[in-house]
Amino acid sequence: MSRYTLIITEKPDAASRIASALDAEGKAEKNVDNGVPYYIAKRNGDIVVVPALGHLYTVAGKKRGERGYPIFDFRWVPRYLAERGAKRIRTWLNVISKLAENADKLIDACDYDIEGSIIGYCILKYACGGKENTAQRMKYSTLTKEELEKSYMEPLSKLDFALIEAGLTRHEVDWLYGINLSRALTTAAKNYSGKYATLSTGRVQGPMLKFLETRERTIKCFVPTPYWNIKAKVKINRAILEAEYKKNPVETKVEAEALVDSCKGKDGETENIEVKKFQQKPPLPFDLGSLQSEAYRLFRYTPMRTLNIAQSLYLDALISYPRTSSQELPTTIGYQAILKKLGRTREYTALTYELLSKPGLKPTEGRRKDPAHPACYPTGNLPDRSLNSAERNIWDLVVRRFMSVFGEPAILQSIKATLSINGNLFQLNGRRILEEGWRRFYKPYVESANVILPPMEEGKKVSVEQVVLEDKFTTPPSRYNPSSLLRRMENEEIGTKSTRAGIIQTLNNRKYIREERIVVTELGFEVLDVLKKYCSTVVSIELTRKLEERMNEIQQGKETRENVLRDAIDILKPATEQLKENEQAIGSRLSQALMKARLEERVIGACPVCKNGKLVILRSRKSGKRFIGCTNYFEGTCKTSFSLPQKGLAKPAGSVCKSCGWSTVRIWIKRRRPWNLCFNPECKLKVERRKND
Amino acid sequence: MAERGFCLVHLKAHDNIVEKFKFWKNALTISWKEYLSEIEQNPLTGEWSKEIASYLISNEGT
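^ Those are the sequences you sent over. The predicted structure of the assembly is below.
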C-alpha cells in the first residue's frame, strides 16, 4: 500500500463504522496486526482507520516505581508503564506507530469531548512522532454515513487545543489528588495493621462522599414529631371522594379530635368551585443527566448502565453522542429527515406523520449548551441487529422524547372544590387533560394526570360518610439514589457528565456506600471524618466547585494550566503534610473501620438463639471448613453454629426465609444459578421437603 | 468524647431528642419518659437517636 490517510478513532467499533462509511462501496477491508484491528477504506486514495482502546496514555509519577507520598512531579506515559494488566497497550501502540510512519495525512476522529480529545492528542504526540500540530480533526455527533462523510470531507484544520489543555489539566489535577490522598490513607492503614486494603479518595470522590455523609447523619439523628391529617369521605353523585381538611397538618391531638367531633353527623355544602385551565409545556431534549434520571425513574437503570447502553446505541449509529450537556437541537440535524426515517417503524408511523403534517417543526429547548454536541437525539436509522430489551427501552425513550419536544403544549384543567362541614373547610382536588398535545408522543413514559371529579354546583348539599383522623409522623429526608445523587452533583457543578456515574461506582467498590437507596457505611464515615479532621480543604464543596470552574475557564482561554496546577498543589501540600504527621492515629481509625467493614460483610443477622449475638460466616482454624457461628462464642456465652456448603462463594443475602423468617445466605457455585439458602435445620419448608423425599 | 459523656455523633442525636420534646409535649401532653419510649419504638427514628433514647431510658432516674 502506498501513502495513505490515517484516521485514529477512540474505540474499535467506531473504527469499523467510520471505515465502512468512508469506503466508496461501503465495505472496508479488515486487517489484524498482532491482535490489533485496523480497516482500509478506498475513496480517492487509501484511508486507514485504526482504533485506540480508550485511553492509551495516562499520568504517572516522574520517577518510575516511586511508592511514597507526596508526589507532585508527573509525566504522561503509555498505560502499560503505569498499570498492571495493560501489557496489550504496548502492542497496540506499536501497531499505531507503524501505521503512522507511512501516512501522509493524519486525522483525529476520536469523540469530540474532553476524553476523546486527550486520547487523540496523546496518540498523535507520543505514538505518531509529534504529529499533533499538523493533524486534522473530524467533528461529528452521530456515526451515520452522511455525517461521517461530511466530517471527513470538511475536517477542522487543527485539533481543539483549548479543549485538550483543559482535559490534560483535569487529568493531572485528578491524578495529584488521587495519588496523594489515596496513598496517604492506604499507607496509614497498612503501616498500622500490616494488612493492605485500597482506600481511595479524589477531587470529586471526597465532596461526593460528603453529600452522602451529611444526609446519612441527618437520617441517623432524626427524631420524628407527630401531627394529624383530617380527611372527609363525601358522597357526590354516588361516588365516594376524599376531601382534605384545608388546614392540614394539625399539630395537636386535642385540636384534631375536637375538629373531627365537630364534623360528626353533619352534612357538608359546596362553598366554592374553582376551575382553572393551564398549559403543560413539552419536555426538554435529553442531555446525558436527564436521560440518566429518566431511565432510572422508568426502568431503574443506574446512571452507569444507562451511559453504557446509550454508548452502544451511539456506536450503532442509532442515537447521537450521549455525553452531552446540551438541551438544544439545531435545525442542521434535519428534523424532517429523522422523523421520516423513524416513521418506517410501525409504532412511530402515525406519530411521525402527525408531526410531519405540521406547517413547521420547532423543538422546545433548554438553556444548557454544549459547544461540541447537540442534545441526544435519534439518528433515524433503524436497528440492523436485534436490540436487547434494555437497549430497546433506551432507544424508544430517546425516540419518543425527540418526538415529544416538537409537540404542542398539553392543556389541562384543574378543579378545586371547597366544602364546608359545620364551618370547617375541606378541599377536593381534580385534574383532567383537555388536550393531550406532546403527551401523546411520550406515551407510555408520561404519568397519567387525570383525577376526575363528578359534576358539582356551588351551594349544594353533600353527604358526609365519614371524617377520618390520620396519625402521622414527620419523616427523615429521603436517601440519595444514584439518579438523585447525580442530579445533586450536576446542580453543584462538581465533576463532569462523563465521570460522575463512574465515581458513584467507585464509592460502592471501596465499600464506602452500599445499597441502591444509598447508605454510608462505617468505613465511609471514618474516611470522611479523617479527611474533614486533617485536610478539610480537599472535601470542601466550595473549593472543589471553584477548581472545576477554573478548569472550564482553561477551555475558554481565560485561565492557564500552570495556574490551576500550582493552586491544586498549594491545597494538597499542607493536606498531605497533616496526613503524614498524624499517620499513626489515622491508621488506627481506618484499620479498625476496615476490620469492622470486613466483619460486617460476613454478618448474616441476629442470632436466633441468644438474641444479642450476631451470626457470621466463619472458617474453622482446625479443619479449614466454612460454617456459621455466633459472635458470642468468643465471649463464651453462645455456641450456636450451622453448617454451610463448602463449594463456591457464600455471602449474606440480605433477605429472610419466607417460611421461618431467618436470615439467608446467598450461594454462588460455578455453572449453577445462585440461590438463597435457609440454614435453619427446623425450617418448615425443609422439614416438608425431607418428608416428601 | 464530648460533653455530657456522649461522642460527637451521639451528641447531635441527643440535642435533637431534647429539642423535639417540646413539639411532642405540645402535641400529645406526654411525659419525658413516655416520649423516650415512643421515639425508641418509632421506626422513623434514626439509629443514633434510638441508641440515645434507649440509653436515657435505662440510665435516667424517674
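The radius of gyration of chain B is 11 Å. The mean pLDDT of chain B is 88.

Shout if you want it in another format.
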